[in-house]
Amino acid sequence: MRIGGIIDISTKDIPNRSTMVIFTVGCNLSCGFCHNKYLLHEGVGRDIDVPELMEQIKSNMLVSGVSISGGEPTIQKDLLKLCKEIKNVGKYISIDTNGTNPKSITELLPFINRIALDLKGPLNNKRLAKITGNQVNFNLIIETFKIVNSRDDIDFEIRTTYVENLMRPNDIDKIILFLRKNQFRGSFVLQQYQYSEGVGEELKQKFQKPEHITLLNILKPYRNMELQFQIYLRDDIIGYSMIDKLYEYLND
């Protein structure tokens, strides 16, 4: 596998778990705001075979889980083999994905515990092309969603990063409407875009961090709505919080 970096211990990647995070190199999308953009360059990282990765995982006694992120992990040919080996040593396994490879996800599901689907925008070609910089077959993402959502044994998180100047509040409304119509059973997380050096200095002004109040106003219509799934906000003001707790200090 082509690996761009490893974090030995993280408490932020899987809720309520200490986690080892493995970053794979390469992605089939070209999102300009990607904070891990360095992972898209051919010369980044190094090839590490599964036995060597497993030695690192087994020797890390301080974590109960392994999160495989990227980049896009499902384009790695050894991903299935790695997940099988991790399962054999009893670690909780989470895969971050953009959802464009449902075949790979189907193969992985018997061996993993969690999917974090990074839903870039509403599921239509025009908006996804604008947000990701690619022509995306949104039907593949829908297929991935339905496959994972049908599995009660898989923890399922969908998250969308809100980028000022690129996204619109209506984009989030359309995503939540899709989740409602399709009986989503997991957690939806609205994430605040924050600039990182990986984005590149030339794009620093193009993509803006939304204000806390902007994100609150986007989610406000859903705070008292009966939904089959939970909605969370993740930003630099409150960290990570369910929306029920976000509006206690605001005047209606």
Characteristic terms for this protein:
ten-stranded mixed beta sheet; 252 residues; alpha/beta; 7 helices; TIM Barrel
For the CA atoms, what is the radius of gyration? 18 Å
Distance between the termini: 52 Å
State the order of secondary-structure elements, H for helix, E for strand: EEEHEHEHEHHEHEHEE
For the largest beta sheet, what order do the strands appear in spatially? 3-1-2-4-5-6-7-8-9-10
Count of DSSP-assigned helices: 7
Structural class: alpha/beta
CATH topology: TIM Barrel
CATH class: Alpha Beta
Describe the structure.
This protein has 252 residues and is of the alpha/beta class. The protein has a single domain, classed as Alpha-Beta Barrel (TIM Barrel), CATH 3.20.20.70. The protein has seven helices and ten strands. The protein has a ten-stranded mixed beta sheet with strand order 3-1-2-4-5-6-7-8-9-10, with helices on one face. Helix 1 runs parallel beside helix 2 (79-88) and helix 3 packs parallel to helix 5 (138-149). It is globular, with a radius of gyration of 18 Å.
Fold topology:
Layout: E1 2-10, E2 19-24, E3 46-47, H1 50-59, E4 65-69, H2 79-88, E5 92-97, H3 102-108, E6 114-118, H4 125-132, H5 138-149, E7 155-162, H6 169-181, E8 187-192, H7 212-219, E9 230-235, E10 239-242
Parallel strand pairs: 2-4, 4-5, 5-6, 6-7, 7-8, 8-9
Antiparallel strand pairs: 1-2, 1-3, 9-10
Helix pairs in contact: 1-2, 3-5
